[in-house]
Amino acid sequence: MLLSTAYFPPVAWFALAARDMTLSPDRVLPSQVLLEACENYQKQSYRNRCYILASDGPQMLQVPVVHGHKVEEFLRGMSLRGPVSSPLCIQSVQVDYSTPWMLRTQRALDTAYETAAWYEYYRDSLFCLMDRKPETLWELNLSLINWCLEKCSIACKIESTADFAAPGSVADDYRYAIHPKRPDDVLQQLSLDRPYYQVFRDRMGGFVPGMSILDLLFNEGPDSILWLKKI
Predict the structure, then answer these.
(1) How many domains does the chain have?
(2) 3-class secondary structure for the chain?
(3) Residue 206's pLDDT is what?
């Protein structure tokens, strides 16, 4: 399966990652995911944003990235250590830590999920991971994806593409299927278009779909895998 990188990807992303994982009484067979590592950076996509459910509705959390001459300076510095990709390549996009966005993100998570059943259980290890401040968006996303996979008990082997995969070259190509600007039917395809518990569900007038995996994890905890595998 071919997926794009994402910042705290939505539930649908992890449902795909868990799709081919096999659970049996005596063993677990992991799924396999290819992350597109050679694409151009896509603005206004899940690559640097996610959505959580706050008291007043969905709230976007975004990772600022370096633009313009700062990219050129970064790449010149990288060239001293070896070849680099195009500034537009997803692996070359540098995270901008010049503003306190990480502190704002952590405060937003505290406010939105302080009453969620499992938030305090996961909070410290998540914030510790974020505080390492990886240099690139690719590194940041990969570390967060692996953390979420582990906490959701999803056995998944992730590898990166060596070259850009042309459209149609991979049967299960979901790189562009999940996008914040347009609806998708991924969960319907997987028969997972059903609610899970959300803290502000009553205030919202019902279940709110399309949230980050964090929304599922903080509310359902270890049972997240049961929801994702429809057990």
Answers:
(1) 1
(2) CEECCCCCCEHHHHHHHHHCCEECCCCEECEEEEECCCCECCCCCCCCEEEEEECCEEEEEECCECCCHHHHHHHHHHHCCCCCCCCCEHHHCEECCCCCHHHHHHHHHHHHHCCCCCHHHHHHHHHHHHCCCCCEHHHHHHHHHHHHHHHCCCCEEEEECCCCCCCCCCCCECCCCCECCECCCHHHHCCCCCCCCCCCHHHHCCCCCCCEHHHHHHHHHHHHHHHHCCC
(3) 96
C-alpha–C-alpha distance, residues 175 and 52, integer Å: 21
pLDDT of 31 > 80? The answer is: yes
Supply the range of the domain harboring residue 31: 2-228
pTM of the model: 0.90
